[in-house]
Automatic annotation (TrEMBL):
Keyword Transmembrane belongs to the record: yes
Keywords: Membrane, Transmembrane, Transmembrane helix
Keyword Secreted: no
Transmembrane segment boundaries: 89-109, 115-135, 147-165, 238-258, 288-309, 315-338, 350-381
Protein name: Low temperature requirement protein LtrA
One Pfam family cited in the UniProt record for this chain: LtrA
InterPro entries reported for this sequence: Low_temperature_requirement_A (IPR010640)
Domain of life: Bacteria
C-alpha cells in the first residue's frame, strides 16, 4: 500500500501519463462545443436567447459530468503515485471510458443516453471499488469506501434516466449530478461511517494547481482546433479568414489574462493558505467558470465562421460576448483566491460586454467578435500597465 501513495518529498509536477490522459478531453471538449453550436443554430433556437439557454443547460449537464470525471482523476493522481502500475491501470481505463463518454455526448440526450450514463457510472463506481479492494491500512481506503456509497446512490438516477423521456431524463441526471457534486463537497458522509476529512489540496496543492493550468491549455487548444476545422468546412475567403484571425486573437487574450501572475502562483497561494481545502474548492469553481467561458467563446467563434457578415441573432450574440464574460467572472474568482482581491478591469469588462450585447443584435457576427477582442485587449493592457515598474506580486490568499 505504501508504494501506491504519492510521497510528499517526491516531485509534484504532473506526469506524462496525466498529460496523455488529457488528450481524450480535447476530443470531449470538442464534442461539447459541437453541441453548443447546434444549440445556437437549431431553427427558432437561434433567434431566442431564452430558448437557446435552455438548450445550453442540457449541454452544460453533459459537460459537468465530464468535468467531474476529470476532477476526480486529478484528485486521484494527487493522492496516488502515477508511476505505480496499479495507478496507471486506473488512469488508462478511465481514459478509455472517457473516450466512450465523449463519443456518446452527441446523442446522450437521445440514442446514446444509455452508453453515456453506464460509462459514467462504470468509471466512478469502478474506480472507487478498485481502491477499496487494493488499499489496506490507510484512511484512503475509507475515503473510497464512502465515495463508493455515494456513487452507488447516484447510479440509480443516472441509469434510470437513460431509459426515460427527455424531460424526465434531464431531471434525473440533474439529481444524479447534484448527488455526486454534493457528496464530494461534503466529504461523502455516510451514517455510521462519518465523512472524509482529507483534502487533496492540503497535501498536493502544487500538483493540482498545475493540473488545472493544463486543463485551461486543453480548453484553449480546443478553440484553435475547432476554429481551424470550421474554416476548412467552407470556402477560404477573406471574411472567413478574418473571422479565424479574430478567433485566434480571442484565444490568445484569454491565455494572456489567465496566466498573468495569478495563473502562475496558484500552488503558492494554496501552500500559504490556512485552509487549503476550502481555497482549493474555490479554485476549482473558478476554473469551471473559465472553462465554460472558453468553450462558449469557441462556439461563438464557430458561429462567426459560419456567417461572418450576416445578421447576428440574439443567441449568437449571447455566445460571442457571453463566453468572454463568463471567463472574466471565473478569472475574478481566481484572482481572489490568489490575492484576496479583484482588480477593477475584470468586473468592468463584464459590465461592458453585457451593456454591448443588446445593441449588437443584428450586426455582423464578425463585428461582435471584434468588439469582444477590444474588451479583452483592454483588460490585458490594464494588467500590463498596473504591473509596469512594480515587483512581482506575491500570493496572499484570503484564508
Amino acid at each position: 500500500m505504501a508504494n501506491l501513495l504519492r510521497r510528499r518529498e517526491s516531485p509534484q509536477r504532473p506526469t506524462f501519463l496525466e498529460l496523455f490522459f488529457d488528450l481524450v478531453f480535447v476530443f470531449a471538449l470538442t464534442r461539447v462545443v459541437h453541441e453548443l453550436v447546434l444549440d445556437y443554430t437549431r431553427g427558432h433556437v437561434a433567434d431566442r436567447l431564452t430558448t437557446s439557454l435552455a438548450e445550453n443547460g442540457e449541454t452544460l449537464l453533459l459537460l459537468l459530468a465530464v468535468w467531474w470525471i476529470w476532477t476526480q482523476t486529478a484528485w486521484m493522481t494527487s493522492r496516488f503515485d502515477p508511476f505505480q502500475p496499479a495507478v496507471q491501470f486506473v488512469v488508462i481505463t478511465t481514459m478509455y471510458g472517457s473516450l466512450l463518454l465523449a463519443v456518446a455526448i452527441s446523442g446522450a440526450l437521445a440514442e446514446t443516453g444509455l452508453l453515456f450514463a453506464s460509462t459514467y457510472v462504470a468509471i466512478q463506481v469502478g474506480r472507487s471499488l478498485f481502491f477499496v479492494v487494493i488499499v489496506r491500512g490507510h484512511d484512503l481506503r475509507r475515503v473510497n469506501m464512502l465515495a463508493l456509497v455515494w456513487f452507488g446512490v447516484s447510479a440509480v438516477p443516472w441509469l434510470a434516466g437513460a431509459f426515460a423521456p427527455e424531460l424526465t431524463r434531464n431531471s434525473l441526471w440533474t439529481v444524479a449530478l447534484a448527488i455526486d457534486y454534493l457528496g464530494g463537497r461534503l466529504g461523502w458522509p455516510v451514517p455510521g461511517l462519518g465523512r472524509a476529512k482529507m483534502s487533496p489540496w492540503a497535501v498536493a496543492g502544487e500538483h493540482l494547481a498545475e493540473r488545472y493550468w493544463q486543463l485551461v491549455i486543453v480548453a484553449l487548444g480546443e478553440t484553435i482546433l475547432t476554429s481551424g476545422s470550421s474554416l476548412l468546412r467552407g470556402p477560404i475567403v477573406a471574411q472567413r479568414t478574418l473571422a479565424l484571425t479574430v478567433s485566434f486573437l480571442i484565444t490568445v487574450l484569454l491565455w494572456r489574462i489567465y496566466f498573468y501572475r495569478a495563473g502562475q502562483i496558484l500552488g503558492e497561494a494554496i501552500t500559504a493558505s490556512a485552509d487549503p481545502g476550502r481555497l482549493g474548492r474555490l479554485a476549482e469553481f473558478s476554473h469551471l467558470l473559465m472553462v465554460v467561458g472558453i468553450l462558449a467563446s469557441s462556439a461563438g467563434s464557430e458561429l462567426v465562421l459560419i456567417d461572418p457578415l450576416g445578421d447576428a441573432k440574439r443567441a449568437w450574440v449571447g455566445a460571442i460576448l457571453g463566453g468572454p464574460a463568463l471567463f472574466l467572472a471565473g478569472r475574478s474568482v481566481f484572482e481572489y483566491v490568489a490575492f484576496a482581491r479583484v482588480s477593477r478591469p475584470r468586473p468592468i469588462g463584464i459590465l461592458v460586454l453585457a451593456a454591448m450585447a443588446p445593441i449588437m443584435v443584428g450586426l455582423p457576427p464578425l463585428g461582435v467578435a471584434a468588439a469582444a477582442v477590444v474588451v479583452l485587449l483592454g483588460v490585458a493592457i490594464s494588467d500590463t500597465i498596473r504591473a509596469h515598474g512594480r515587483p512581482l506580486e506575491q500570493a496572499s490568499p484570503p484564508h
